[in-house]
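Q: Start with the shorter request: fold the first protein.
A: Done. Sequence, then structure:
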Amino acid sequence: MKLYSYYRSSAAYRVRIALNLKKLDYEIEGIDLLHGQQTSEQYQRINPQMLVPALEIDNQILIQSLAIIEYLEEEHPSVSLLPEAPVLRAKCRSLAYLLACDTHPLNNLRVLNYLTDPAQLSDEVKKNWYHHWLETSFQVLEKQLQGRQFCLGTSPTLADICLIPQVYNALRFDLDMSGFPKIMAIYEHCNQRTAFIKAHPDQQPDKPVLSTPA
C-alpha cells in the first residue's frame, strides 16, 4: 500500500493512525501542500480533488480519509476500530463525524488560504476563526466523553483517530485547552501508544528538515 500524505494533514494523520493500529505495512509518498504539489498534473491523475490522503492499493486509488478507514475496517477487521454494540458504533461514528465532518472542513488549509486570499483577512482574524470552530466542537465533545483514556470503551476507536489530529492542530495554533481536561487526557494517553507515535507529524518522512546555522 502507498499512502499519499502530507505530514501535517489532519486527514492523512487519521489514516496513518488507522493503518498503524491495524498493523498494516505501507509506504509514504509525501505531497507538499504548502508548495502546491497537490495541484500538479501528476497528482491530479491520482486524486482529482487535489487533496490528501489517497491510498493506492492493488492498482486502485481510494480517496477521502473516512472512506479509506471504512475500507480498512471492512478488509482488515481483526483489529476493530468500532465498538461491537450497534448503539456504541453509532455513538462512535457521531463523535468522529463531529470532528471530521463538522470541524475539520472549516479549518483545513484551503479554507485558511481562502481567508487570507482572496478574503484578505488578517492573521489575527484567521486565528480567531480557527479557535472559534475548534472550541465550538470541543465544548460539545467534552460533555460526551466519559473516560480519560479513549473516547469510548477501553481501546482506541474511530473517534480517537479523528480526535488526536484536531488536538494536535489546536495546540499548534495556541488554543487554550485548559477547559477540556477529558480531551487532553485522551490526547496524552493515546500519544503514549506506538500506533499514534508513529503517525505523529514529527515522525513523518516528508517533514521538512530545518537547516541549522554553520
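Q: Next, the second protein, separately.
A: Sequence, then structure:
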Amino acid sequence: MDSVGREWYSRPVDRLPSISAFFPAYNEEKNVGDMVERLSAVLPRLADDYEIIVVNDGSADRTGAVGDELAAADPHVRVVHHQVNRGYGGALKSGFEASRKAYVFFTDGDGQFDVAEIKDLLPFVPEYDVVVGYRLTRAEGGLRSLNATCWNWLVRRLFRIPVRDVDCAFKLFKREVFERVRPEAEGAMISTELLARTARAGFTIHEVGVHHHLRQHGAPTGANPLVIARAFYELFKLYRKITTERG
C-alpha cells in the first residue's frame, strides 16, 4: 500500500473508497426488490464506488428473475445464480468471490436488518479489519433467542471468537481479509468458521449494536432441525480441523 493509502486508513472516515454489498436469497422474490432499493439508497452516501450483488441460491420462485430484472435496470446490480440450493455457506462464499471492491459487506436477504445502519460501522473501519453487528434485541425472541445464546456461548468457548453474536448477518470486511481467510463450510457454520479463521489469522474485529426486525415476507430456514443438526456436525468438524492446523 502506498503512503496515500496508509494515510487514508489511519484517520476516521464516514465514507469508503468502494464497497461491495451482497446478500444471499433463497425463495425471497418478495424481498429482493426492497433489499436492492434500500442498498441503492444507502450506499452512494457511504462510498465513492459501490456494487450490489444478489446471490440467488437455487430459488424455486422468481427470486432469480427479479434479480435479473433489477440488474438490467441498474449497472450497479449483479446477480450470481446457483443452479441448485447450496445452503447459506455456499451462498456467502459465492458472494465473497464475486465481490470486487475495497470493502465487502453482507447481510441477509430477508430484510430483518436496516442496511442504513452500515453507517454505524464506518467509524471503526480505520482501526479494525472487520466490523460486525450484534443484535441489540433478537426480533423472534423465545426459543430461537435461547438457542442463539447457547450457540454463541459454545462457539466463543471453542474458538475464542471475540464477539457476542457470531451469526449476526451484518458484517463489514476489508477485502484483504479474504486473501488469507477462505472459509469452507457450505451450511450454517459459515459465520463461525469465518470469524474463527479471521481471528486466528490475526485480523482485528470490533462489534457494533444493530437493530433486528421481524421478517415481512417469506419463511425463515434457520430453525429447520436439519439445518441445526448440520451446523453442529460442521461445528465439531471445524473444531477438529482448526485445532490441528499450524499457525
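Q: Describe the second briefly.
A: Confidence is low (pLDDT under 50) at residues 1-9. Helices lie at 3-10, 29-46, 63-73, 88-98, 142-159, 177-180, 190-200, 225-244.
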